[in-house]
Amino acid sequence: MFWESVKIALDALVSNKLRSILTMLGIIIGVGAVIAMVSIGMGVREKVSSSIASLGSNLIIVTPGAASSSGVRQAAGTSTTLTLKDAQAMAREIPGIGAVAPSVGKQYQLVAGNMNWTSSVQGTTPEYLDVRNLSVESGSFITNEDVETRNRVAVIGSTVASNLFDNINPVGQSVRIGNAPFTVIGVLASKGQSAGGQDQDDTVIIPLTTAQERMMGITYVQTISVQAANAEVVNDVQDGVTSLLRSRHGITGDKADDFTVRNLASVMATAQETTGTITMLLGSIAAISLLVGGIGIMNIMLVSVTERTREIGIRKALGARYANILMQFLIEAVVIGVIGGAIGIAVGVGGSYVISSFAGWKTVITPMPILVSFGFSVGIGLFFGLYPARKAALLNPIDALRYE
């Protein structure tokens, strides 16, 4: 009886093609929208996570200035409480630290021949390469000797290289940063854009002491990047950094810190939680279409029951029981949900690829939203088909046979 009911349901759908397609349209749009919206949300989540991870693994960022001043966060670089000696003390005294890289930064105009470009110039130490997960594509990175002797050498990002030197190998070429001549000793491998849309390849790295003394005329550092040896000791290292700096800066009791320590692991967790909420919101909004599709199924099934009242009377007169009639119409409603869900999956997956190709947004398609949305489409067909099916099964056979 089951397969006979499936055959009857398919015949009923084929005999009313346009009506069946319009009924399925709500399910198709609903399933497709859920898959597409969730794939966009998952893409945003993955992009944010990879962007934060690209800054460095097990990374702790120390910046000058208290977390708040009269309720307002101080602007970056406005406080001068961190020094190179603070960074050296961290590397020397705190267990569990893999590397420490102090840095300063400023925008400068770069000139090479008749080409010019404005970029961010970072003064730092050799440890910066490992701390920030950078790699050198050609040439070499700055060395401790460069830092000690304040050498005028620079390592440039791929964006700077393409804008200043085009197809020429930049290694060994001269570039003027501000008014000071530098020799390019290396080019960094490309890292692409950050989650905020910033070009991570638009950068120039020079020795810390060169930037401090020859370029900016300062003795403090603006950021200290600390890499923990592994994920298990990140919190211990963060506590150690806080205690050490409070001691070195003479901060006692309830006095506010004159620095801020941020753990990127907690930043990553917050970002994932936020993007997860966005994904759920997008999926929930799209799922409303599934409910609309379910109402469409109920509507068309009620019409079908009315149209086939005489048929139901004949079937009952020939011995069909309550369960037989109920199953026939339930299966018809479920078949609509199954077919609509299958087409909706194709539409959703195809839509995700189209969005990724034309809008340039990263989309991630996973099995879970596909399975959940398909399950909902089948469940909605079953739920909204139950009332019309029960109504058909409860028809009095005598009244049904008299129906015109």
UniProtKB/TrEMBL annotation:
It comes from the Bacteria. The keyword Cell membrane applies. Its main location: membrane. It is a multi-pass membrane protein. Keywords: Cell membrane, Membrane, Transmembrane, Transmembrane helix. The chain crosses the membrane at residues 21-44, 280-305, 326-355, 367-387. It is found in: Cell membrane. InterPro entries: ABC3_permease_C, MacB_PCD, Macrolide_Exporter_MacB. One of its GO terms (cellular component) is plasma membrane. The keyword Membrane applies. One of its GO terms (molecular function) is transmembrane transporter activity. Residues 284-396 form the ABC3 transporter permease C-terminal domain. Residues 20-243 form the MacB-like periplasmic core domain. Belongs to the ABC-4 integral membrane protein family. PANTHER family: ABC TRANSPORTER PERMEASE YTRF, MEMBRANE COMPONENT OF TRANSPORTER-RELATED. This is Putative ABC transport system permease protein. It comes from Sporomusa malonica.
